[in-house]
Request: fold
Amino acid sequence: MSESGSANATAQAPRPRFVPTPAFYNHVARGYDLIASSYDDVEGRNEISETVRRYSIDAALKVFRPGSRILELGCGTGRDAVALAQRGIRVDATDVSPAMIAATEGGPYDGAFSNGAVLNLEPDLESAARGLYRSMAPGSVAVLTAANRLSLFELLFYPIVLKPRKAFRKLGHEVPIPVSREGEGKSYVVPTRFLTPREFVGAFRPGFELAHQRGIQVITPPWNLVDMARLIHPAILPLERIENRVGTAPGLRSLGSIYLVSLIRK
Reply:
């Protein structure tokens, strides 16, 4: 998911409401179909998105073992599924759609995985959570990322550059987000709901309990500011090392632009 937009007028259907209807899911699918051929290249060149991916894959490999059968929610082009499969993990991959919720009925699974904050695009997160509960084995783990309403870096950075409204834009309801930082996807927007870690984990209760949480992009630039981050990369390197150590600290772990959680199925 990318937040740097463009005014270029790529034609698209009127933006649907953020509700679990065929119109909404079809709109999301059209957007990602539009960028399917370039998605891996664009995301692979985004060093900040790659950091999130590395944290997610590392967390998954700590809990999933070779032979485990897991469900990936929001698979995109299948890049993460391939990485996990190369480590002997069997992945049933599905994307954001009614089929994603239906796929949660296909267990029993030894766990679940979702990277890239794609669950912020799911209007019916509670139904997905209930489906996961029914399909996952007791004691199994869901490793998930989501995009936060609250970003410490953005709250400090945007007022300094005289763009205070951008610091608080995620605090409301849905926010229109371009599906890519490049090409036609820059002007194709999808409604997105940002959630605090408390809100996100709350959607999975009471069937799951929080086992681990890490804030990512707490004191480092978020993925949408990757161009700026490249210009000042030497200054960011020490911040990345600090963030790696303090990203799980109480308080700070809830202030990353992205957060990673591991939820245990009760």
